[in-house]
Amino acid sequence: xxxxxxxxxxxxxxxxxxxxxxxxxxxxxxxxxxxxxxxxxxxxxxxxxxxxxxxxxxxxxxxxxxxxxxxxxxxxxxxxxx
Length: 82
Fold this sequence. Notes:
The termini are far apart. 6% of the residues are buried. This protein has one domain. It is built from 3 helices and no strands. By secondary structure, the protein is mainly α. It has helices spanning 3-37, 44-62, 67-79. Helix content is 82%, strand content 0%.
């Protein structure tokens, strides 16, 4: 594989990660809005955790470098320990 091919592969991976980060951010924003709308429900926190658990666990396994997602993972683990 040439250097140019390697750079292209890295660029593709960076683009893929940026797109995934955007999707996850949109998910967090959407779920935050849902939580705010349902904040009076006693089980809103548990429902939110259930809705995002799969995405957060994926993010945790793949170790995104975003400080924001690291904070989300830490909070998630506080609320739902392994």
